[in-house]
Amino acid sequence: MTGETTVHTAVRIHGRSTQRQAVRSLLDGLRTHSGHLVVAGEPGLGRTALLQWAAHSFRAGPVLHLGTGPHGTAEELLDSLRATAGEGPALVCVDDAHLWDPPARAALGRAATRLHTAGRVGLLLSVAGHRAVDPDFAHLPVVRLDPLARPEADALLDEVSDGAVDPAVREELLAGAEGNPALLLALVRRLSPAELRGHRPLPTPLVDAGSLAEVAGGALAGTPADAWDLLLTVAAAARASDAPDVAADVAFDAARHLRPSSTALCVDALPEPLALADERLRFHGPLVGRTVHATAAPDRRRAAHRALADVLEAGGHRLPALLHRSWSLTGPASEPSLADGLAAVAGDDTVTASHRLRATAYTRAAELTADGPARTERYTAAAEQALLAGRPDRARHLLAAARGCAAPDEVRGRAELVRGLTELRDGPVGDAHQSLLLAASLLAEDAPADAAAAALAAADAAWAAGDLAACLATLAPGPPPHPDGTRAPGRAAAPRPAGPADASAVAPGAGGPPGPRESAVAPGAGGPPGPRESAVPPRAGGPPAPRESAAAPTEPSDPAAGARRAGRAVPHPDTVRDHRVGMRALLEGRLDRAAVPLGHVVERARTDDRPEGLLRSAAAALLLGDADAARRAGARALAAARQLRSEALVPQALEYLAYAELRAGRHPQARTHAEEGLRTALRTGQRNTAAHHRAVLALAASIEEEPEAVAEHVSAALATARRHGLAQAATLAEWAAARADLGRGRPLDAADRLGLLVLPGPGRGHFAVWRLAVPCFVEAAVLAGRREDTRAVLPDFADWAAFGADPQAAAQLARCHALLAPPERADDLYRHALARHEEAGGDFERARTALLYGKWLRRRRRPREARGRLGTALAGFDRCGAGIWAAQARGELRALGAAPRPGGAGALTGLTPQQLRIARHVAEGATNREVALTLAVSTRTVDYHLRKVFAALGVRSRLELARMVEHAEQAGEAGQAEKTGAQP
């Protein structure tokens, strides 16, 4: 056996908490027994670094690194391991074990299963990601490495550059590396200090063949020529594919065009980097595919694209065929006919293609275009499609490419519209507001419908920032103000709002107000729809209100312009007008004027099947207080966005759904939507949308026994909200933190937090949100002995309740009056509040009132009545998963001498809702990282809750936990069958 002993040096690992925990468990276990673990990952993800970290962390005995030479039989290997270990524990590290020859791999696999006979030896292997399922290693436990998340990649970049990277350069580096730490480091080494600081332009391409070969070239060593041609064909095909895989028949046919005499191109003899599934080929790791394409000889690469163009053209696949044809060019950079053809097909709504593919086609058309204005227009169209594909980073890059030459106002306006929408999702909303106002101004003459969409999105940005004056000015009749604040002659000035109470008229209810796109959103606020999303059906729901200045879109005068127009949004003027009129009326406190136009928008959901129109309908329904209509429209919008592969609209649809469920008091459902929404928002680069989902998750967690989860979501939401000026998300997050304090019996802390949000002053919360927190503040202030503070906010809340858009507000107002009333009036006020809750529905708010009433009755020495109210409160809290509040009710019942009956099934009844969710996921075989991704929390939070679960249930392993969950749920099903008389 050959090897070398480790010299301990510090190793810094960014992220990888789940993987490090698994390695740490292996090392800790060596105190008593042997163990083994496989670390799997693609090139550059840090397998070697993790093994080095393990070697540095292990101090209990020697560490040996095995090389790749022959190692004999399993018995010989075990004898060597015994000799290494001696009397104490030892760690053996084998990096790139998949590179061992087959007999040695087999011996290593057999030795791993017999380590118990070798003393206390830990065997830590690393293999290529797909090789972990090889027969030699498939029976061993595996921990997998994924690309770094954005925060972890940010931290790594800061460490290696001392934080001196220009923000624009940072975005380019992180986008190019795609979460691969080794590639990120290679790119940083490639750049000079001046380039890193943005003082000199970056090389093109940034991710060059040398950097890719440095990281992943080893995976391609020794590939024969026939196999290389197939690899190159698959890599080239992926550039014009909507998915990471390609049809096997297309790849094989094109490869045979490249090498007609080859007899080795068949499914039964695939090259090592490729995998076949469902008749489609893909690379095991995308970085290897990028490396194959970048390092191929230019003439061979062009030949591969030419072969693919021939095969796809024969199969009728117009757009990818044209793309491959363009990449096969050997002539001048400018090809007007090919560029025109690509742009025309990219904008043809009869061609089935994803937004990503259309963005690629428009980009390539721009690269082949010599004319400056036409090139700018095509880069702008590419940016529109990239934004719809959920790639705001790519949209910014394309908009930068669109600069540099003169262009008509319409093209400049569309570029500003895309820029503003990009910032609205993933940047400072103040910047978004200015860009969108400029877009509306530039588009007003040539594209009035686009101008109207830009104006509504500008109002959206002002709403998100909490700037009421800017929101009103933007929604005023006539064209919106210029970014400098001026108006053209004859434009109407914005009227003043009706009064302080009316400023919050759009707040949708106790469950939480709509997100930034739920106010004045033309679904253009989520980005212009694609070719299949632009047409909106005729208006439904009765005659329109008096029209504003938004005119119908003009028809293009030539076919090429028609093809270009097909690829972007042209919002229906009726919908734009109705939304604008209704929003303006609500902000002015005129519900009578708002109900009709917003009702028209809601009604259109009955016939619309496009996500942007359905999102508008959901927003209007929330503004009118109709949570059921909002939920229906949001669910249809989600289905439509998924069906059309509109990645950018999915997290927005989930945001509407989450707020609708919060509005109805269904916190578990809201949490489910927000968890998925957070994952998709982060995946599609929408950090502002992610902050709103974080706020929803914090609000949902604040009613459960989860202070760690509340703190985590609040911290993450505030981090983005403060950087990007998201006043609404910040207010919601702070409210969630205060509500968690109140639920945990900390009224002083809650009153301090809520006072900053609701009391008059410059730091008051978002104009449409702060009133929603008033009932919590009144409760906290009364319990904290600060009754006088409530006088400053209750009149405004009374005006809000009278407004009628929030069905819970009237009951909450009666509860507030009961808390403040003298004993002779409080009884009747509590009863009145409960009666109003029966009309409005919603388990959580009704249970809160019953809890406060029960506490009041107990203090008045009326135990029988108190027991009834507290029992009702406990049942309501249990029903909606409000664990922390249910604990309060149980405590009150115990103080009365009552023994509250636990709910749920068997041994699991002592777990909080979050702990129960984690227990069930773990019982199904999910890793801590997988649970964290599913629940949109950190792995640290999962670790914390899992330790609590193990302690509460008295189990010591995941297997024991799985058995207990299975038995408890079977017992619960049996009990339910017994109750209902169901037969097995």
TrEMBL record:
Superkingdom: Bacteria
Domain HTH luxR-type, chain residue ranges per copy: 904-969
The keyword DNA-binding is assigned to this record: yes
Region (Disordered): 476-579
UniProtKB keywords: DNA-binding
SMART domains: HTH_LUXR
Residue runs in coiled coils: none
Pfam families membership: GerE
Bias (Low complexity) ranges: 486-508, 547-564
Name recorded for this polypeptide: Transcriptional regulator
